[in-house]
Design goal:
Structural class: mainly beta
CATH superfamily of the largest domain: Galactose-binding domain-like
Helix content: under 10%
Mean pLDDT: 91
Distance between the termini: 21 Å
Number of strands: 32
Radius of gyration: 29 Å
Shape: elongated
Largest sheet: 6 strands, antiparallel
Number of helices: 3
Strand content: 35-45%
């Protein structure tokens, strides 16, 4: 929306509110000696918005925290207003015989907090009570994670977050709508089939419900750029997993995302024990740059390292994830190894071979007090100019853990773009 248009609407809103409040004062000044005792029970005729462009429209639902205008009769001496049993703060200054301005309390029960709600607005005074069917909606949806950023059209992904209630649609980058939308009863997750025509460079995954639209963020994008290694057309594999057998197209319980992937299939040694077979180390020993530098708008050497994350897809089959971590490593200019760990279970929600996106902030890479400051520090590599990008599965448990874990699409993304 253009700034001048927004200001115009804002000015109209203030004007309408001023007129309503002015009329309320006028009503009270007409008979300043009138007793507080109501003359009759309240009557609710309609609910309106404070938006001047919709002042003549009535509606039967609104979201937590919104301000509404109750139109009716005998409202001047209202003693209470409640939404689904939750009493609202009542200011007599905003009450006249025919209008009552009220804000819906944030604590009002909705389907987000109660299994069933009466969807009732009540206004009461000394003569009685009026009841009006009115639905209070939870806040707009919040997308906190996308299960798999690399899913193809026709595949189902899961969105994780909050307030997935009364969902109307899910829009993918490029403006195409997802199909087979199904939200969990608790509103914390939503399954949707990826449609054809998705363009990851054009927007975000947005959920629209009766309460509004989810907000775009670094967690609502399908990051398809910044590839370092995908084991297919871009594969600077250095060492680690036995390449002949473990860069593969299938594994027990795991189907490839697209082409080949790296497979860690072994009993992971306990107590942080080492084994090359649990490592995928990417490097170009000729000194070539393996980290992304294009498009230039996304990869600026002077950008703070906090703008970037290491991301990859991970699939797990028949493996107990408790105590297992994914570690990302690189070497800086003095050959120190900088590492950052995340718990696999924080990202991988099932062990049935489904692919999930795992994200590790590059700002977390550290060796004692040594950290990277800028993206350019990441691009330099070690003393000899070799760049290493390593993924390691770490077992923090005392006992060994048999594991089948696949990794694909190892990439670096700018989360601010």
């Amino acid at each position: 929306m253009k700034k001048n248009t927004f200001n115009s609407i804002k000015q109209k809103s203030f004007l309408l509110l001023a007129l309503v409040v002015g009329s309320l004062y006028a009503c009270k000044e007409e008979d300043p000696t009138a007793p507080l005792e109501a003359k009759a029970a309240p009557v609710i005729e309609a609910i309106r918005t404070t938006n001047p462009d919709k002042a003549d429209s009535t509606f039967t639902q609104s979201t937590l925290g919104s301000t509404i205008v109750i139109k009716g009769q005998n409202l001047a001496e209202a003693q209470y207003v409640s939404f689904n049993g939750q009493k609202a703060s009542l200011n007599p200054v905003y009450a006249s015989n025919n209008y009552l301005i009220i804000r819906i309390p944030e604590q009002t029960p909705t389907v987000a907090t109660a299994s069933s709600v009466p969807d009732e607005l009540k206004v009461g005074n000394s003569k009685g009570e009026a009841t009006y069917k009115f639905k209070v909606l939870p806040p707009a949806p919040v997308v906190q994670a996308i299960s798999n950023e690399s899913a193809k059209p026709g595949q189902t992904i899961t969105l994780y977050g909050q307030y997935f209630y009364f969902v109307k649609d899910v829009t993918f980058p490029g403006g195409v709508k997802g199909t087979n939308v199904s939200a969990a009863a608790n509103g914390l997750s939503l399954n949707v089939t990826v449609p054809a025509g998705v363009d990851p460079t054009k927007g975000d995954v947005i959920v629209t419900s009766e309460s509004g639209r989810s907000v775009a963020s670094a967690k609502t994008k399908l990051y398809s750029y910044g590839m370092v290694g995908n084991f297919d057309d871009k594969n600077p594999f250095g060492w680690g997993i036995p390449a002949a057998a473990n860069i593969t197209t299938s594994a027990p319980g795991i189907t490839a995302l697209d082409g080949k992937f790296g497979l860690i299939s072994m009993a992971l040694p306990g107590n942080w024990g080492w084994a090359n077979e649990k490592v995928i180390n990417l490097a170009d020993y000729s000194g070539g740059q393996i980290f992304p530098t294009e498009p230039a708008s996304h990869y600026n050497a002077n950008d703070p390292i906090a703008n970037y994350e290491a991301r990859m897809e991970v699939a797990v089959s028949n493996t107990d994830l408790k105590g297992l971590q994914l570690q990302v490593m690189t070497q800086e200019a003095t050959d120190k190894e900088l590492t950052a760990n995340v718990n696999l279970a924080d990202f991988v929600r099932s062990t049935d071979g489904k692919w999930y996106t795992v994200a590790v902030p590059l700002a977390n890479l550290a060796n004692g007090s040594t950290k990277l400051a800028k993206y350019g520090d990441f691009l330099k590599g070690n003393k000899t100019g070799i760049r290493h990008y390593r993924a390691v599965i770490v077992n923090t448990n005392a006992a060994d853990v048999p594991a089948t874990i696949a990794i694909d699409n190892m990439r670096i993304v700018n989360i601010t773009k």
